[in-house]
Specification:
seven-stranded mixed beta sheet; alpha/beta; two-stranded antiparallel sheet; about 15% strand; 10 helices
Length: about 250
């Protein structure tokens, strides 16, 4: 299999050595060279990185890369091979293990996140702006009505795949990107993010995380969940405190 996994990064970092990994400098337009392929070459949306995050790398891969399987991971977040031992870097999954997994499925996704006491909708509304999701639903209703029932059901669930991480067969990758960016570009036209914080201005990256399961579910696509790991230490106490603060009503909903 010819597998290409784009590693979205904005800085020089230790990259997996397996040749299936393709480090890509995202948001590279106007930035100093850091030694990786830049997402401002070929057909690209590099200048939208402030609002699209790693999706400028996804768009670049869609328009400029060719392989049997294409995927997206992050310099600080990788799929791991649960059969390997050692450091986190040593456990990053390689092409041989990926080929075994892809023999009987076309899509690999990270183990889903469970919010337990929050739905996908309420968690987003507390963390960001509910209007982002409401406007997305309106766009689906107009352009892709067959997806609305799955969208509504997904928003009521407490679990979902996150991080814009996945590996897909090329035909599915193309179909997903065509659908996703059509929605996001329309959402960009309708949302006024001029008053958003720098964090919330990354809205299109956040919304896309919630759309992946909608596309998977509506199309009945089979997939496997595989483990992932953060390459750097996580401040879980701060994350828990932030989550609790949002749940108690200090977050944003409009």
């Amino acid at each position: 299999m010819n597998i290409k996994l784009v590693v979205a990064t904005h800085k020089s970092y230790r990259m997996p050595e397996d040749p299936c990994y393709f480090p890509l400098h995202v948001g590279a337009k106007g930035k100093p060279d850091i030694g990786y392929t830049k997402d401002d070459s070929g057909e690209n949306i590099s200048d939208k990185n402030k609002n699209y995050c790693e999706l400028t790398g996804l768009y670049w891969a869609w328009k400029n890369l060719d392989a049997d399987y294409l995927g997206l991971v992050h310099y600080r977040r990788h799929f791991i091979d649960k059969g390997c031992r050692g450091s986190k870097q040593d456990r990053v999954i390689g092409s041989e293990a990926l080929e075994m997994l892809l023999k009987d499925t076309d899509v690999l996704l990270p183990v889903p996140r469970n919010y337990f006491i929050e739905t996908n909708y309420s968690q987003y509304a507390h963390a960001h702006h509910a209007v982002d999701l409401d406007t997305t639903r309106a766009i689906l209703q107009e352009k892709y009505p067959d997806y609305v029932d799955t969208y509504d059901a997904y928003m009521k669930k407490t679990t979902g795949h996150r991080f814009n991480m996945f590996i897909m067969k090329k035909e599915l990758f193309d179909a997903y990107c065509k659908w996703l960016f059509d929605i996001l570009f329309e959402l960009e036209n309708r949302l006024d993010v001029s008053g958003y914080s720098d964090y919330d201005a990354r809205v299109f990256g956040f919304v896309s995380e919630r759309l992946l399961d909608v596309w998977i579910g509506t199309n009945g696509i089979k997939y496997k969940n595989i483990p992932y790991a953060f390459m750097e230490k996580q401040n879980w106490m701060r994350k828990i405190m932030t989550f609790t603060k949002r749940k108690l009503g200090a977050g944003k909903s409009k």
